[in-house]
Amino acid sequence: MTKNKVEHLYIHIPFCQEICTYCDFYRTKTKDPNIINSYVKKIVSEIKEDNNQYKTIYIEGGTPNFLNDNLLDELLSPLKNKLQNNYEFTIEANPEFITSSQIETLLKNNVNRISMGVQTTNNNILKLLRRTHNIENVIEAINLLHKHNMKNISCDFIYNLPLLKNSDLEETFNFIEKYKINHISFYSLEIKEGSILNKQKYQINVDKEEHHLEQIKAYFNKLNYYRYEISNWALEPAYYSKHNIAYWDLKDWKAIGISGFGLENNIYYKNNGTILDWKKEESEWDDNELFENIFIMGLRKTNGIDLSVERNKKAYLYLKNKINHNLVIIENNYIRAKNIDLLNDILIDII
């Protein structure tokens, strides 16, 4: 069997200063320098053994920029020569850790996109979420990034948070407009197993969730942002997340680091184990799993699934009788949701 070319790389850095109440990712508050140093060295060892050249690299956490400048440089330096032309190299960053020297380390190693976890502009809610930054830290970080000519900045926000009011959302969009944030991910709060909110038995307010989403869509329309995926908006297509589009198009990607998951040649895997000793646990997708995942991921995008791609066409023909065609549109060789906010109504018949 011909192997697919792997052009997308995910790296997980699990270290955090504090555990956020909504988070269920693999993370640790360890300050032990031996563990942190050993983890970075193990990641670097895997990077050096890898011969791929990447269109996109995404470093996530945890809090990747929790690493000091020397460790960050050690992590990034073997990656800077593994990039194709017109690459996208993203690192997640908490605003309170961003410094001029850190930005210089990122730029030196060809990082060209920052994904910043803001979550809300309300400082009281940030404390409730156990975030260790405030909105003043965010503004300072953005100004520093702009000063260093780092313009490709994405900010993450969450709606339907505890105590979040309509006026807070208005304040958030005033911030987005003022600082011309060119990419926004706006997620609805999910109570996930393993999170502190789940242990506290926090209940989602569905009415509030729907109201917030309508408010968010209205604001983005007013500011002329493109909604290109169910939770993602950009000022223009040039700022779409190429790495995430690769996920949604179910392109192959490699994962390095504890709890990272990847897909290579229909082999889906997760790196399970301990912080310094993980191994791939693999499961090979059959046609049914592959085709279902093409639709689960692809219909998240507002332009939908490209049926001129042979694999996608096979998926459509395989699932055709399960699809509620009243909820989708097929035109120009694409199938997409009529209303992306009703995506679950489409998928429930497919999976």
Task: Walk me through the topology.
Blueprint: E1 8-13, H1 33-49, E2 54-61, H2 69-76, E3 83-93, H3 100-108, E4 113-119, H4 123-128, H5 135-147, E5 153-159, H6 166-179, E6 183-188, H7 196-199, H8 206-222, E7 226-229, E8 232-234, H9 242-248, E9 254-256, E10 261-264, E11 267-274, E12 277-284, H10 287-298, E13 305-306, H11 310-319, E14 328-331, E15 334-337, H12 343-350
Parallel strand pairs: 1-2, 1-9, 2-3, 3-4, 4-5, 5-6
Antiparallel strand pairs: 6-8, 7-8, 10-11, 11-12, 13-15, 14-15
Helix pairs in contact: 1-2, 2-3, 6-8, 10-11
Tell me what the structure shows.
This is Heme chaperone HemW. GO terms for molecular function: 4 iron, 4 sulfur cluster binding; coproporphyrinogen oxidase activity. One of its GO terms (biological process) is porphyrin-containing compound biosynthetic process. The structure is a single chain. The chain is of the alpha/beta class and 351 residues long. The protein folds into two domains: 8-248, tm_1862 like domain (pyruvate-formate lyase- activating enzyme), CATH 3.80.30.20; 287-350, no CATH class. The protein has twelve helices and 15 strands. The chain has helices at 33-49, 69-76, 100-108, 123-128, 135-147, 166-179, 196-199, 206-222, 242-248, 287-298, 310-319, 343-350, and strands at 8-13, 54-61, 83-93, 113-119, 153-159, 183-188, 226-229, 232-234, 254-256, 261-264, 267-274, 277-284, 305-306, 328-331, 334-337. Strand 11 and strand 12 (277-284) form a beta hairpin. Helix 1 (33-49) runs parallel beside helix 2 (69-76) and helix 10 crosses helix 11. The longest helix is centred in the first third of the chain and has 17 residues, at 33-49. 35% of the residues are buried. The mean pLDDT is 96.
